[in-house]
Amino acid sequence: MTQPLALPEDDHDGLFADSEEMELSFGPQHPATHGVLRLKLKINGERIVESYPVIGYLHRGTEKLFELHPFFQNIPHTDRMDYVAAATNNQAYVGAVEKLLGLVVPPRARCIRIILAELQRISSHLLWLATHAIDIGAMTPFFYTFREREILLDLFEDYCGARLTLNCMRPGGLPYDLPVGWTGRCAALMADLPGKLDEYEELLTNNRIWKKRTVGIGVLPPEVAIDYGVTGPMLRGSGVRWDLRKALPYDGYDEVEFEVPIGRNGDTYDRYIVRMIEMRQSVRIINQCLEKLPEGPIMAKRPRVMKAGKDAEIYHGIEGPKGEIGFYIVGDGTPNPYRCHVRPPSFINLQSLPELCKGALIADLVALIGTTDIVLGEVDR
Amino acid sequence: MSDEPAPEKPAPEKPAAEKPVPEKPVKKHEPEDPNKPLWEKDPVAPAWLDGADDPLTAALKEEVGDAIEAARSFAGDLTFLVRRDAIARTCAVLKEKHGFTYLVDLCGADYPKREPRFDVVYQLHRFSDQRRIRLRVMTDEATPVPTVCGVWRAANWPEREVWDMFGVRFEGHPDMTRILLWEGFNGFPLRKDFPVEGIDTGSAIYPEFYREGAGPVAGSGTGWKPPKPPQEPS
């Protein structure tokens, strides 16, 4: 009885064929840009002909700061890049330093690192889901996901005192052991979370409006995704089964069982599904780690002053919530890194946005920015 | 007892000579416990190894000839030093014939004491066997590096970032503009001679406070304050 709304695709091109192209500046102060992203758009009617991202509004010179501080004092700087996924930033950085110095992390520390990183992945994806849904117009998931994210951040707070800028890993291991009762609370949340995820999926997965706004929007073919260097859920949404946790396992990821979900069509809906399944897989990984959590030390034997060898250079990348986050560090025999470069997943993924929104509607642009899951603190560093 | 300290007086230099002593007992301990877990042993930092015997090196040398100037490996990553003018061709060969379809990262580095001052470093990944290699190219301020945007579109923004941060130009790049800083920014911040406090940027940001070319200068300490605006008559 109710007819679906006729989308502008039907006869759009005929209607606006002779309309003029217009330039539109989108952002930087726009709530849907997730920070301070500016897009110079060339539009024809409602359709985007060309887009040009302008970034750098949040540039703080992090890479210069890395050169001024000793290796372990740089960990807080990594927190402030992708500020909703600090644990994985820490993990990538300390992993690079460990490779550089030849440190071997004890098994208990590796296991706790996996737990922290997966909790961080869930919290980052929950934030992504909340903002992505609110961009498209679904208000309720925001309240639901932030309810669970709060409990999750409380776990982080109990562990290291901070909720977002965690500073929770050190080269060679961890700064603190888990507090008393922490594993119990974590296990309780993990028992709770799959049900909560079902709740979100009930709201969105088969929702007709949600599907209208996401299915077939922003299709990224796999070969284009690889050409653009896109990683993380965006690459997997395009159907490439590649995850650094499986491909180049680090911190004992080869000892846990999990699946790597992929999408079929490479559209916004597939990327949503991939991230939802990833959260469930993270729950699975955390449950395994809590079960087998080994006893023992949490810090490797390491030199009091960490100095990289002269002329030593390393690149170490891990699977962050947004994609591959890597560090390229050059040492020169002093306690400071000579050069420390970050490979930020958001920066590289954002590069593919003009490709994604070619020919899309302006109304879909916010969905496309949401689906790339960028954090401008990391894009601009 | 009071006699003994007197002859030892000329020995304040001794601590410097004694520095290697604390290492000795550590070395003694090691053979005692060969079954110690790795994380309780002293860390062994990786070292540079020769990469000439790697099959990839041989294959690449056959295909691009003398473009490969050196091949070494560090911690499992094979690193090629590539001649500057041959980098785009080498990358194309690596992508087409060896399957390095994914450009992980591209960045610059500054070594002011060296003759060609800058490095451009490429990290490549192959999906078939999850192999990673690194390429590096040396260049100076005046000579542009051929762009690899034609090989991987992923190189576009990282190359702009290298231009922005180091002032290394890329020849044939479709859009060689600054990316993180604004057009007209004075200097290249990740160069080693660029002070953390900034240089000459004052007049660009606060024209009411600084005259043309004036602003925070190098070596004035980290906590700089904007000076009072200059008096009109002066």
Fold and architecture overview:
The complex is a heterodimer of chains A (381) and B (234). With 381 residues, chain A is of the alpha+beta class. Chain A has two domains: 12-54, no CATH class; 62-380, Orthogonal Bundle (Cytochrome-c3 Hydrogenase, chain B). Chain A has 16 helices and six strands. In chain A, strands 1-2-3 form a three-stranded antiparallel beta sheet, with no helix packed on it. A three-stranded antiparallel beta sheet of chain A has the order 4-5-6. In chain A, a hairpin with a 4-residue loop joins strand 4 and strand 5. In chain A, helix 5 runs antiparallel to helix 15. The radius of gyration of chain A is 22 Å and the shape is globular. The relative contact order of chain A is 0.19. Chain B has 234 residues and is α/β, with parallel strands linked by helices. Chain B has a domain at 48-171: 2-Layer Sandwich (Beta Polymerase, domain 2). Chain B is built from seven helices and eight strands, in the order αααβαββαββββαβα. Chain B has a six-stranded mixed beta sheet. Chain B has a two-stranded parallel sheet with strand order 7-8. In chain B, strand 2 and strand 3 form a beta hairpin. The N and C termini of chain B lie far apart (74 Å). Residues 218-224 of chain B have low confidence and may be disordered. Classes of the chains: A alpha+beta (381), B alpha/beta (234). The interface between A and B is large, with 51 and 46 residues.
